[in-house]
């Protein structure tokens, strides 16, 4: 099945100049643990993500005041793994397993954000007997090569 059929389209997003407090409020309001970071709201070019874990590890655990963090550039994850809306669910599942990710941004041919696909999105589309296998593949650590 194509990712465009199972992704969450047009997710909430932030720019690197937004604050930790702004993104935390989006996470609370939308009940999500990841918010895509884009170059600008006009281009929607994906440049990173901010996760609830980023906030915990890079702000809270270091004793930093969230109000004092100048912007998301300081704490966001910049390494991106993306997929195309035309990729199939197996390709996306493989990327998640390879990179140990539970969510992947979906971008168009210009790198502009159009959606997010999560482990849960994939699991909902799989036959019941494949769900556990998929979650295990995404969750287990890869052997060193």
Overview of this structure, please?
The chain is an alpha+beta fold and 145 residues long. The protein has a single domain (3-139), classed as CBS-domain (Roll). 34% of the residues lie in helices and 18% in strands. The chain has 5 helices and 6 strands; from the N terminus they run E-H-E-E-H-E-H-E-E-H-H. Helix 3 (89-99) packs parallel to helix 5 (128-139) and helix 4 (119-125) packs antiparallel against helix 5 (128-139). The longest helix has 12 residues, at 128-139.
Topology readout:
Layout: E1 8-9, H1 20-30, E2 34-38, E3 46-51, H2 52-60, E4 82-83, H3 89-99, E5 103-107, E6 113-118, H4 119-125, H5 128-139
Parallel strand pairs: 4-5
Antiparallel strand pairs: 1-6, 2-3, 5-6
Helix pairs in contact: 3-5, 4-5
Apparent shape: globular
Strand content of the residues, in percent?
Answer: 15-25%
Helical percentage: 25-40%
Q: How many beta-strand runs?
A: 6
**CATH superfamily membership, which one?**
CBS-domain
Order of strands in the sheet with the most strands? 1-6-5-4
Gap from first CA to last CA: 30 Å
Q: Number of folding domains? A: 1
CATH third-tier fold name: CBS-domain
How is the main sheet built?
4 strands, mixed
CATH class: Alpha Beta
Please tally the helical runs, counting DSSP H or I stretches of 4 or more residues. 5
Which value, in Å, is the CA radius of gyration?
A: 16 Å
